[in-house]
Amino acid sequence: MTFIRSLRSAVLMLGVSALAMPAGAADPVVVPEQPVFPAQGKITYVPRTSILEYKALSAYQEPDWVTEKFVKTGKLPPVGERLPKEPLVYKTGNMPDGTGVYGDTIRHVIGGRPEGWNYSAGQSQGWGGIDIGMFECLTRTAPLFQVEANDMEPLPNLAKSWKWSEDGHKLTMKLIEGAKWSDGDPFDAEDVMFYWEDNVLDPNVTPLNGATPETFGVGTTLKALDPYTIEWTFKEAFPRQYLFAMAYGTFCPGPSHILKTKHPKYAGTTYDQYKNAFPPEYLNFPVMGAWVPVAYRSDDIVVLRRNPYYWKVDEEGRQLPYLNEAHYKLSTWADRDVQAIAGSGDISNLEQPENFVEALKRAAEDTAPARLAFGPRVIGYNLHLNFSANGWGEPDERGEAVRQLNRNLDFRKAVTMAIDRQKLGDSLVKGPFTAIYPGGLSSGTSFYDRQSTMYYPYDLDEAKALLKKAGLVDTDGDGFVNFPAGTAGGGDVQIVLLITGEYGTDRNLGEGVVGQMERLGLKVVLNTLDGPKRDAAHYGGRFDWSIRRNEQDLTSVVQNTPQLAATGPRTSWHHRAGTDGTLDLMPFEQELVDIVNKFIASNDSAERADLMKQYQKVATTNLDSIGLTEYPGALIVNKRFSNIPQGTPIFMFNWAEDSIMRERLYVAADKQGDYELYPEQLPGKPGDGGPAE
Ligand code: GLA
Ligand code: CA
């Protein structure tokens, strides 16, 4: 055999054998089909324009007691003068039960605690819908769950209309004209510009939900043309995507007339003083939302009363909201389910599978006070491995060594193949609820494509072999693999897993992962923190691994899209800029960034669908994050409420508290409860001790 011939046959053989070889044990396969779990409550899809409009009506109404006690006594101007020229009008045809009547209360239970009211400076109000109800945003996306897919654009809100320039680089927005904050101060471009310039652009301030300049595109600028007109300038042409970033939670301005009095630029204060200037005890904080906080008792309750200046009405001219009061009882998330089911609370997103069976049993009884309806599988959990090797979170030597492991594909494969997801899901709840979720886009989004979703099946032996391939061996025979000699002293690899202690599900998943990693030979220890501390640690990069419930980037794709990859220094959930401000991306991460940027820039729906298939394949093949489980959630609402849209998912573009449009909810006169704690009272002056009588 000549040299050439032998070479040829060798090449040939190589080719043939490569083709004939069965997929190796460590190769990914298409994820198995999920157990069927039909969503209850069929959504009626509607055109976007059928929900609301802006127009002047011939007359307006308000609750009688407001007229009697406040208008006739000169404490408030007449309702017509409190409303904008053209209020936002909800169309009756889109209201599931039609226009409503005034009265009653919505009783929320939440697991978080208010840090204060300064949303613009990053303070949490305790979640569970309280901030969503207080702060209104330029656009609104939550109700889009009911909008036909070919019509996907955010709804107007504080921005009532917008127009693109011919070249697509400028977007001119008209703000609602003549709307007022809940204390009567005019809302205008000054509020918008204060939020943008002195909060988003100010590097010392990060609003709640993390808006940064890149949230609206690198190089984007904003200016006010007149009190009711603002103009965006983008580097890209027609980046319609950013209209989604102008919705909750990244463009919801605060009251500049109040906030400026404490902001360093205007008041000579420190940034800490600014952030903390409006603690929960500061009542009647001005809002554009439907209800204003008028009472706060620590670890007990926050009470909000109707905003007399709310700028939305029904077609009959009734000023909204219909409900006079909103409660947020300060308890636990698990208690929210219990109370909603028992009837002492009014609403819950049933999102912790540990409560599913009990809740279903009780809801099935005729006497059940609440109805419960499951939606699509949109609640998912991922294990995020910190990919920064250039100092995000300033890790010590051990932490650095873990980051190197996290960046090693064999190591990530070992971790994912050592996770028995069936068992993990069953440990939360038995039955057809949980599904194998390898990571990537949620199976509940319209962009999901199973064939592009790659999965490394559970195989503990293969996982152990991969760990060895990654250079990890148990050199001292204690059952846990060690770092190679010379790295971190050659001791046992120890990984700190960050979780929140606020949810039983997070704790159970954390413990499950620790146990399954122990069988692999990896020592993982939990760092369990409460919500705000966990978020601070996560955003600060102070974690090796972190388990998080998925956010809108994965459940809707069009909301918070930049977070799907490290498209900016502070967008990714597990890879943010290091101490020198740069991102040390691995090649597959750069691929994800390119795909996501193309998606943002594209307005072609076929191309966008295709890009998301590519995203899914690259993300799941390379284990950008490690999926743990995915399951449906159910919306629980007390039966006395009308106007709850059928099939509302508990989470998609936003949480259900936003999607159901609480300002339109009402309780029929014969069903009204006696829950108002401050009947016939309205918010007092900002900073005053309580409501005004
Ligand atoms: C928390 C709850 C969710 C939802 C959101 C709203 O995260 O767990 O169900 O209520 O708050 O922000
Ligand atoms: Ca060891």
UniProtKB/TrEMBL annotation:
It is found in: Periplasm. Keywords: Signal, Transport. InterPro entries: SBP_5 (IPR039424), SBP_5_dom (IPR000914). GO terms for molecular function: peptide transmembrane transporter activity. Residues 1-25 form the signal peptide. GO terms for biological process: peptide transport. Transmembrane segments: none annotated. It comes from the Bacteria. Residues 154-555 form the Solute-binding protein family domain. Belongs to the bacterial solute-binding protein 5 family. PANTHER family: OLIGOPEPTIDE-BINDING PROTEIN APPA (PTHR30290:SF9), PERIPLASMIC BINDING COMPONENT OF ABC TRANSPORTER (PTHR30290). This is Peptide/nickel transport system substrate-binding protein. It comes from Shinella fusca.
